[in-house]
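To: structure subgroup
Subject: Chain for Friday's discussion

All,

I'm putting the inputs and outputs inline so they're searchable in the archive.
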Amino acid sequence: MANQEDISQSLGRTPLYQLGVELKARFIGFGGWEMPVQFSGISREHEAVRNAAGMFDISHMGKFTLQGKNLISQLQSLVPSDLSRLQPGQAQYTVLLNAQAGIIDDIIIYYQGTDTSDTQKAVIIVNAATTSKDKAWLLQHLDPDTVQFQDLSLEKALIAVQGPKATSHLQSLVSADLTPVKAFGHLETTILGKPAFLARTGYTGEDGFEVMVDPEVAIELWQRLYDAGVIPCGLGARDTLRLEAAMALYGQDIDDTTTPLEAGLGWLVHLDTKGDFIGRDVLVQQKAVGVKRRLVGLQTQGRNIARHGYPVLAAGEVVGEITSGTLSPTLGYPIALTYLPTQLATVGQELFVEIRGKAYPAVVVKRPFYRSKNRAIN
């Protein structure tokens, strides 16, 4: 049986790993990487992002650059969202689908525009655990003669700076004015005098930027932000923040057996404005007859936390299981996500969650559980 040291040695480490060690972060294995789960405590880190600014090492995520003369039209066939609407400097959160309209991964496509030779350029950020799978899928379906694909996953570092004060902390270090950049906007600029890709995106429900730079720049940036009072945050706070905002976690809330219509991601499906794409027929059918299950938000009574995998009951029968659940630091009560049969997936529906052998009351509530007033507008 492998010991903890053997397990750690088999995991990847980001360029910021040593800084986490120096800050006495607690590490766990996640998506093939050894990642900090917390620094000063999940509650403190969570509160920092909601009220001031926190920063996350997200260098484990997959980072691809693509360019080609018909790049957008080729990507159109792989996602249900209409990418033709994207202007340079805009991005689209979307999903890669298989033939059954199951979600291979949720991704963000950042469109960088067209150069003087009519070559379209884009950056795609994908989940850490699915990087190899996504890369293989993209290479399988994109024309290698017309699209140049580059995997920068191990070459670049990513830092997410999130919270109502995130932009002001970054602005002093960035050459470009960040004020005009709207939500899901992005630009290439310099930070600390070095080339950087900045995007007004994140996974916390708050305003902020994700910054892609060379590893040595990331180390200096992290230190400068830390010295300025930005709180280092781990995966624990990242999870509570994203769950309050009802953002799906791939592998738990969505996977290759769930469709975007079932997962409450119908706003990503643009059947009326684009042509064929992988999985379209299944989504057209689901749209016509309705889905049999839907992802919903739950609130449980008291402080009884419904964790991942716990059974959800109606009239004494198991009707689903919790995909994600936590005690919301902002709201002060337990929240969760689960798939329910459509007839039960209505706000106000009363249910039970089995927690350690005992059934506790729960009710279906609106998503997101929390909506920030500080988010940048589109």
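Points worth raising on Friday:
DSSP finds nine helices and 19 strands in the chain.
The first strand starts at residue 26 and ends at 30.

D.
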